[in-house]
Design a protein that fits this description.
CATH class of the largest domain: Alpha Beta
Shape: globular
Mean pLDDT: 93
CATH architecture of the largest domain: 3-Layer(aba) Sandwich
CATH topology of the largest domain: Aldehyde Dehydrogenase, Chain A, domain 2
Number of strands: 17
Radius of gyration: 22 Å
Distance between the termini: 5 Å
CATH superfamily of the largest domain: Aldehyde Dehydrogenase, Chain A, domain 2
Strand content: 15-25%
Strand order of the largest sheet: 9-10-11-8-7-13-14
Number of helices: 10
Largest sheet: 7 strands, mixed
Length: 353
């Protein structure tokens, strides 16, 4: 008797993956990439951001202590990122690259990976809308914005960027946010236990957010709090800022801020605000607050983002897939989906006599 049965299965492959991580959450970003790569049997080359290499080196030391063999985790620390990127994307021994960073750099890496047909996971830039509908709980929405906007001084890829507030509650919401921002204490975390917001990563980041504030003011935006550098604390500090009466032509709306600026825009129509939220070429995270269940389902389904927070300002969790759509990248990290890109699907056809 002849038996034939096709089998489809994801097989662990012992190939090399290159993992490129950003500055803002060095331990979390490295762990998020390293764990599934190792679980799938990959060896790895990890290149942390040159501004924060020590965290990744510490992970390497812990891996050695845990008994992971030498050569399984290889860490490259350098400020010559373009040269290392070219090396990793052109070497046929590297079969997978996972990158978290800007869309611009991600596009460069994708082009480079074409020559070796490398598999890629790209977690790129965002410009997250945060929508507060007229029936929302204003205080809950203000709390959610504080969680999303000012965490890590606004230096997260899923930070709320464009804050759309229904005209009926606009002033009330702005007042609630300002009340909360007033309670933030800026400084060096090592100097006091009550510090709630720290510095930006470098002087260029400060110059960028300062220029954004000046651009908003020039176009009619009103800075209700903050809007200035804090040189008395250090050159990398910028005051938590709330700007009202923002519009679509301002840099704080068109560009990813990556700093402690909340830019508020008025809206009146649901379809119009969804269109505004989707009007960018990126789509990583999106947030909205509403009480109507039908409205929640409508907005959640129509927002063009890989991650949507409904009545919450915190969307990252290791048990859910993390990643975006459009120019925010491809692939997912976290959950069971995070390991799939480190495996290969193989079809095996068995036949016996």
């Amino acid at each position: 008797m002849r038996v034939s049965a096709p089998v489809y299965k994801k097989f662990r492959y012992l190939f090399m993956s290159s993992l490129i991580t950003p500055f803002n959450f060095p331990n979390a970003m490295t762990s998020r990439k390293l764990a599934p790569a190792l679980a799938a049997g990959n060896t790895t080359v990890v290149k942390p951001d040159h501004q924060c290499p020590l965290s990744t080196l510490a992970i390497g030391v812990l891996a050695e202590r845990a008994g992971i063999p030498c050569g399984v985790i290889n860490i490259v620390t350098t400020d010559r990122s373009p040269e290392i990127g070219e090396c990793l994307t052109s070497d046929n021994r590297v079969r997978k690259i996972s990158f978290t960073g800007s869309t611009k750099v991600g596009q460069i890496l994708l082009k480079a990976c074409a020559s070796t047909v490398q598999r890629t996971s790209m977690e790129l830039g965002g410009n997250a809308p945060f929508i507060v509908f007229g029936d929302a709980d204003v205080n809950a929405a203000a709390d959610g914005l504080m969680q999303s906007k000012f965490r890590n001084a606004g230096q997260t890829c899923v930070c709320a960027n464009r804050v759309y507030v229904h005209d009926d509650i606009y002033d009330e919401f702005a007042t609630a946010v300002i009340k909360r921002v007033n309670k933030l204490k800026v400084g060096w975390f090592k100097t006091s236990s009550d510090i709630t917001i720290g510095p930006l990563i470098n002087r260029s980041a400060v110059e960028k957010v300062d220029a954004m504030v000046r651009d908003a003011e020039a176009q009619g935006g009103k800075v209700l709090i903050g809007g200035k550098r804090l040189p008395e604390l250090g050159e990398n500090f910028f005051a938590p800022t709330v700007i009202t009466e923002c519009n679509a032509d301002m840099r704080v709306i068109k560009e990813e801020i990556f700093g402690p600026i909340a830019a508020l825009v008025r809206f009146t129509n649901t379809d119009d605000v969804i269109a505004s939220a989707n009007s960018t070429d990126v789509g990583l995270a999106a947030y909205f607050y509403a009480n109507s269940l039908s409205l929640c389902f409508k907005v959640a389904s129509e927002l063009e983002a890989g991650i949507v927070g409904v009545n919450t300002g915190l969307v990252s969790t290791e048990v859910a897939p993390f990643g975006g759509v459009k120019h925010s990248g491809m692939g997912r990290e976290g959950s069971k989906h995070g390991i799939e890109d480190y495996t290969q699907l193989k079809s095996v056809a068995f036949q016996f006599k």
